[in-house]
Amino acid sequence: MPVIVVSGSEAGAGATTVAAGLAHRLAYAGHRVRVERLAFGANAERDAATFGMLEFASSAGTPVQAGAISAADDVTVIDASVSPDAGTIAGALRAVRVAVVLAGRSGGATGMTLAIENRAPAGGELRIAEDRLLAAPTVGTLIEASRARVLARSTEGERAICEHIVIGAISHDSDQPYFARFPRKVVVTRAEKVDIALSALRTDAECLILTGGSDPSPYVLDRVAASRGTTLLVAPEGTVETVRDIEGTFGRSAFSGDAKVERIGVLIASAVSDEALTRLLGG
Predict the structure, then answer these.
(1) d(C-alpha 134, C-alpha 243), whole Å
(2) Coil/strand/helix, residue 18
(3) N or C: which terminal CB in the chain sees fewer CB atoms within 10 Å?
(4) How would residue 54 be classed by pLDDT, with cut points 50, 70 and 90?
(5) C-alpha closest to that of 22 among 7, 11, 41, 12
(6) Which are the contacts of 105, defined by CB distance < 8 A and separation ≥ 6?
(7) Average pLDDT, the chain
(8) Is 239 helix (H, G, I), strand (E, B) or coil?
(9) Could you give phi then psi for residue 173, rounded to 5 degrees?
(10) DSSP readout, 152-188?
(11) 3 - beta bridge partners?
């Protein structure tokens, strides 16, 4: 069966994201799929673990060496990241090569069977539109960026995804309806604003960051402990500084989690036509 080697034109281009999306597209087109992460780069262990949790494809779940890869009964998708050996591996396996390039940057796609433009202004054939969910950071990323103390973890913990940053207090709008407008959110407010914190918790915030360094009210701690739906953090700086610290995490977070996998599956289904899929399969 065909082997497809996916490599990024540069670091952060989205090779892992596209590899997962292609595996999803192939699986739902009726193919048995294996997806592996090449043992290259700092994120290899994390990316391989993500592949290992996919329900629609098989995977070792750990990085694989180039010499250990061989054709199989399944369609094999290999995430080569930005490995300089991607071309050599593809040649040795007689593989189809897919280049993932960032929007507006055509370099690195020369000689590829297929080039997929990632984070494009709009979706289309072989173009994946920039997407809020795919760009969203995890709670773990927010913890690192804000240098916060973790007081309580939700059931999903550091893997939870936060698409929106919502700031309290709310001046002219009622706080709870305001917070409820935003799915998958992190709410940032001063530790002493107990009413705002409780309102955020009632609207199922993935993460609540209390700023200023002070410990929260026992009411807030009790509510978090009862629901286990929100990770509670205390950041050392003020609200403005904390928001500044975390807003730059969008677009830099790792590809992981069921929500992102399903989202890239939808986007790849629109970007890779049946004709392009046939080309990938060597037809």
Answers:
(1) 20
(2) helix
(3) C
(4) very high
(5) 7
(6) 9, 10
(7) 90
(8) helix
(9) -110, 150
(10) E--SSGGG-B--EEEES--SSS-HHHHHHT-SSEEEE
(11) 76
